[in-house]
What we know:
The chain is globular. The termini are close together. By secondary structure, the protein is mostly helical. Helix content is 77%, strand content 0%.
Amino acid sequence: MMHSTAARRVALMGILAALALTLSALEGWLPPLPFLPPGAKAGFSNIIVMFAAQTLGGPYALVLAVIKALFALLTRGGVAGAMSLFGGLGATLVMWLCVRRHASLILTGMLGAIAHNSLQLVVAMVLTETPLLVGYLPALLLFALCAGTVTGVLLKLLYPALDNLVRLEFLKKRG
């Protein structure tokens, strides 16, 4: 039985989505750090999105960002879903541009995290009609630099295993 490339991409996207959602769920179990603004997370699921941007391309990474936002909507509600959607799409676009410019994984992770946190702050200010939330920006930017560095380093460490997954999926002989 022959398997089409499209079917293999769908299967791979399912695997990557499952990995991203698992990392997101596991991260939700971590206790919040007391010195950070409420809701600040390391963004470990962005490791998978960054990998998808680099290996499959921006459209696939954007689909993963939307899947993550739907997961946030279903598990944490409308505000979390909106923040995840806008932050995730913005971060994914920034990471894809970084990948296209051959930026390092660490720089890509940092700029993606900055975009994610900044856009989430904008969504929070719009939803709460509270411009005073701008006061969180310095802490969020500093945290984004740290979190983006960690996700970049983790992707660098996990890249061989993830790349092997892609090769196994796409290089199987047909028939």
